[in-house]
């Protein structure tokens, strides 16, 4: 039983759907022809404002870069990453996952960081406003 708990904890850490980093994005993701800057479309923009209202936090919106799976370069365990120093959310398009929900998760990181709140996944705002880790379609 002890080993099952350890395996479960490790699997949960490995399958974390998103993360915050202050590093640099891989060139592969930046130099792809499928990248969109700003809000790629009205759905992403509306999702940002919904996340603002839900969290009760305000901030200038981040840049959003949509990357297809072939151009992703961040590791298969991530569906999205928020780069704090660039105020940019990278969203991976992967079959079976809703990229708008992934974006809302990254927006929550952005809003928490901008408002100097705990931006770890311990914040209850992830479950309340960005569907926690349930990002499947």
**Order of the strands making up the biggest sheet:** 1-3-4-2
Total E-strand runs: 4
Mean pLDDT: 75
Rg measurement, Å:
15 Å
Q: Stretches where pLDDT falls below 50 for ≥5 residues?
A: 1-18, 30-37
Which helices and strands occur, and which strands form pairs?
Elements (H helix, E strand, L loop, with lengths): L1 H13 L3 E4 L5 H4 L11 H14 L7 E6 L11 E4 L4 E6 L5 H16 L9 H6 L8
Parallel strand pairs: 1-3, 2-4
Antiparallel strand pairs: 3-4
Helix pairs in contact: 3-4
Characterize this entry briefly:
With 137 residues, this protein is of the alpha/beta class. It has five helices and four strands, in the order H-E-H-H-E-E-E-H-H.
Describe this structure in words.
- With 137 residues, this protein is an alpha/beta fold.
- It contains five helices and four strands.
- It has a four-stranded mixed beta sheet with strand order 1-3-4-2, with helices on one face.
- Helix 3 (42-55) crosses helix 4 (99-114).
- It is globular, with a radius of gyration of 15 Å.
- The termini are far apart.
Defining traits:
single chain, 137 residues, alpha/beta, 4-stranded mixed β-sheet, 5 helices, 4 strands, globular
């Amino acid at each position: 039983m002890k080993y099952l708990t350890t395996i479960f904890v490790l699997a949960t850490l490995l399958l974390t759907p998103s993360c915050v980093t202050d590093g640099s994005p891989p060139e592969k993701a930046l130099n792809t022809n499928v990248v969109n800057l700003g809000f790629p479309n009205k759905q992403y923009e509306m999702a940002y404002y919904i996340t603002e209202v839900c969290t009760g936090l305000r901030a200038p919106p981040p840049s959003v870069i949509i990357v297809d799976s072939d151009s992703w370069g961040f590791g298969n365990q991530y569906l999205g990453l928020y780069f704090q120093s660039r105020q940019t959310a990278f969203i991976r398009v992967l079959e079976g996952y809703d990229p708008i929900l992934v974006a809302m998760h990254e927006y929550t990181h952005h809003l928490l960081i901008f408002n100097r709140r705990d931006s770890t996944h311990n914040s209850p705002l992830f479950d309340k406003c960005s569907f926690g880790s349930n990002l499947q379609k």
